[in-house]
Amino acid sequence: MKPALERYTQGAWALIVNRRWCKGCNLCVAACPSRILALDEMELVHVIDISKCVFCGLCAVRCPDFVFILERLNGKQRRTVPAPLGEG
Amino acid sequence: MIATRAALAAPGALFAALKPPLGDSLAMVEADRCLECGGPAAPAPCVAACPAGIDVPGFIHAITLGDAIAAAETIFAENLLGGSCARVCPAEELCEGACVLDKEGRRPVEIARLQRYAIDRAFARGVKVRTPAAPNGRRVAVIGAGPAGLVCAGELAILGYAVTVYDARPDYGGLIRYAIAPYRQVREPLPEEVARIASLGVELRMGLAVDSPARLRNVEREVDAVFLGVGLGDDVGVRYPGDALPGVWNSLPFIEAIKLGRSPRVGARVVVIGGGNTAIDVAREALRLGAGEVTIVYRRGEAEMPAYPHEVAEARAEGVQFRWLTNPLRFLGNGRLDRVECQRMQLGPPDQGGRRRPEPVPASEFVLFADTAVKALGQQRRTELLGWIEGLETDRGLIVIDAATGQSTHPKYFAGGDAVNGGDTVVAAVRSAKIAARGIHRYLSGAGAVA
């Protein structure tokens, strides 16, 4: 069984999922553009593959129960640029 | 954005932008809609979709802070023609089509208009683009002052190279200047962009054609590498009986005449032949030139049209009519075009390319009345210049390059843009020019051997 509070990280960024507040409504699963959310056997949300998360925050926007928290650096350094063109 | 019939007929409609510029407050409201996606492992979908790799959420974030100059610097860091691309990019197919809001069934962030906003504001305040490195004493020649050539020249100048750009035309910009529909871009902001590229240390020699083997040798002798951004040639030479009648045009001279302020008188009925984006552009221009009835004739079906579906939809909403599965046979008229004889087609078995081959329906000839007909069937590939370079491998008239470096099979020659890809977007040319600039730098600085 997965823990109640999960912290999925991608570099210095994190998506925190408070599964105790999840009621399995599926809204976030439908909202996620990267399709990386699913309900587990307990009908609680979990993250399938954090490496595909684009940190758009739609899960947090859509969740009626405040299950999701996005942690990321703010300001200019918050972003990483994509891999360089070619082998550059 | 769809123009109404009345708006299309209004004076100035020909040059009125499809998407009018955003003001300060609208830009900020629109920028605030951005969710500013993007993690360290998975970039924002808009960034992943941008061939130039612009940090879209980054520049939009700067707009939300009211800092258009920082936004423009973020754009220029990846795309020296960011202002032109903001006007001409098929954003619906690229960044805006990838926006997570679109995936949610909402209106995507208007990235292209925000990009235009940032750059217009920055230009108005006289912002510089980027800072060049100290001269490294090496020289590169760029042939062609279209988007590929301009961007390659600018990126090389930033790396410290002395770059000279040659172009046969009197004005720079290539197809942006001469062939992009005027309701997307006439000329602005090319002069501002090119002035900044020139200020990086790029010398532009306009009106100087490299049109003989001796001239090419003279250019090559003085430099350490050559970038070929020569694009494609004239309209393909598909001939029909009656081609020479006044009123029958090729697409490139037709659009060029409009953009140079010598709009043709198209009359009431216009027939456009072809199924690509240029055919759509010509048809929409014809409406804006006052034609009452504009018909696109294409020998395959709607599903087979190479044009972007959103542009087909916009053209139809503006009143352009479509005759799919129709092929012109000949242009007819007494001293001037007055009708086009056509034939119905049906789709047969797939050809080698996998597209179903259109075949004539017997005894299906009919006539379309037309005061003007424009052939928009694509551009010819160049062969003359390419034949002068020893060892330069081409594939059906396109230059063969190493995709990672832009280097051709002649080590001193690099290439990008339409001359390599056979005709693609401005931003695709920008991407290939950036790759070639890095390839040239690696080749000349010896940093990592180029095979």
Describe it.
The complex is a heterodimer of chains A (88) and B (451). In chain A, a hairpin with a 5-residue loop joins strand 3 (37-39) and strand 4 (45-47). Chain A has two helices and five strands, in the order E-E-H-E-E-H-E. A three-stranded antiparallel beta sheet of chain A has the order 1-2-5, with no helix packed on it. In chain A, strands 3-4 form a two-stranded antiparallel ribbon. Chain A has 88 residues and is of the alpha+beta class. Chain A is globular, with a radius of gyration of 14 Å. Chain A has helices at residues 27-31, 58-62; strands spanning 5-10, 13-18, 37-39, 45-47, 68-71. By secondary structure, chain B is α/β, with parallel strands linked by helices. Chain B contains 18 helices and 16 strands. Chain B has helices at 5-9, 24-32, 45-49, 56-64, 68-78, 82-88, 95-98, 100-103, 111-124, 147-158, 175-178, 190-199, 213-221, 251-259, 277-288, 309-318, 418-421, 426-445; strands at residues 139-143, 162-167, 202-206, 225-228, 248-250, 269-273, 293-297, 321-323, 326-333, 337-350, 356-360, 366-369, 372-375, 394-395, 398-399, 413-415. Chain B has a five-stranded parallel beta sheet. In chain B, strand 10 (337-350) and strand 11 form a beta hairpin. In chain B, helix 2 packs across helix 9 (111-124) and helix 6 runs antiparallel to helix 9. The radius of gyration of chain B is 23 Å and the shape is globular.
